[in-house]
Design goal:
Low-confidence stretches: none
Radius of gyration: 23 Å
Number of strands: 14
Shape: globular
Structural class: alpha/beta
Number of helices: 18
Strand content: 5-15%
CATH architecture of the largest domain: 3-Layer(aba) Sandwich
Strand order of the largest sheet: 3-4-2-1-5-6-7-8
CATH class of the largest domain: Alpha Beta
CATH topology of the largest domain: Rossmann fold
Amino acid sequence: MYIALLNPQGNFDPKDSYLTQHPDFGGQLVYVKEIALALGELGHTVDILTRQIIDPDWPEFEADQDTYPGHPHIKIVRIPCGPKTFLAKEHLWPYLGTDWLNGILDFYESQGRLPDIFSAHYADGGLVGGLLQAKTGIPFTFTAHSLGAQKMDKLGVNKDNFITIDEKFLFRRRIIAERLSMNHSASIITSTHQEQLEQYTHHAYAGSVDVQGQDAHRLFVVPPGANRVVFSPDANELDNDIQARIKHALKRDVAEDRQHLPLVFCSSRLDPKKNVTGLAQAFLESSELQTKANLAIVVRGLDNPLQERAQLNDQERTILDEIAALIDQHQLWHTVTSFPLNSQAELAAAYRYGASTQSVFALTALYEPFGLAPLEAISCGLPAVVTKNGGPMESLFDAETGKEYGVLVDPADPADIARGLLKIIQDEKTWKHYQQAGMERVISRYTWNSTVKGYLNVFEYALQHKSDDQSLLPIPEYFWSPSSETDIDPDVLKKFYLNKTAQLP
């Protein structure tokens, strides 16, 4: 099968450059890359279609095409999309239906062959999937990763702040693009049942998809997985170097009589929704937890992140400033360390070190759509304490049997976070129980091999049902045109979002 993955924002290269250094990068890119590699291993031909960036600050993304060494069936194809320089995903909308769409069509005309199916990711990829289907008749599947309506809810959008927030995030484009993606796609892929029932039933998507009714057959749950080659419990040549790096940081930052203690590993992106400050607060307010562990904050690219935080961007610096203020307040600098881990391989090596010291991984995000990072840590033998909000409630807990594969906590309650961490590290027997249960869960359900089998089943379904008669929403002219003057009036979306009985034109 010839498959094209649509992911205009973010970018891909063989070295996974900047993977965690921008909100547009991170988990979604890991997901798309792993899907591509797993499909290629099965002999399928895969193009990862993304945006070309010609910018001295991002030199890795300049070439028209790229490859992953050792994966001959995979191509990274970079298509121009608007200005040559890097753009955040919110600023790509005017160019998707012109530059990027036409560039994709020109590329395949030069190849002399179109893909059998498109796999679209995020709202912008989904929009272009719909436009390509209108042009070529080739069906597409839609994987949202996250949805705009939930982000609007979390941002507390109301009648007074709507226009200001929309100017930053351009929800007037994103929500409409998501509605079109859901409506026009041959099938929709979610990571959990919870994602289907809680996110796709939001009133902002009414009329575009009927999750529990006529469209139920188009929705598929396909969980992502951990890369068991990288995130393995088996040591490799990196382990000694990473162990030395962590021990150096401990010697530098932590009191000598505490350096033997386990670590609470925080390797989340420094983003407010990841709630790293909440985790630090939980640790710094629990004297019992401080007797049993040290807190380790991982930040890519800086040797001593807490002390070098002035070098970070405003958002990241603000979060570390908040954490530093808490440490000052509690006078607990001797219990906290920070150091860099600059690749997935380095993360895996650090997790193995954590497993050898009976440490624990923590992800206390306010909401986590799926939560792949905890599964990667667990795959290395490091037990996890994870937010109960979102996908982890399904991946790390079996509602039918009540069995736990990690500890779920309320991210808004520092005391509950501390309780969860103590539950795992309280004694060796309990720690080993969660280690074993978690690894069994990952191996049995959450690997990329199982994910890609699910994707192939969805592709087969989409190809067989591409002629299904659907009542398709019309694609507005402003998605085909670069002119923002033809854009939807933000006041219209404001009324629609805030008034559940309102209709979009």
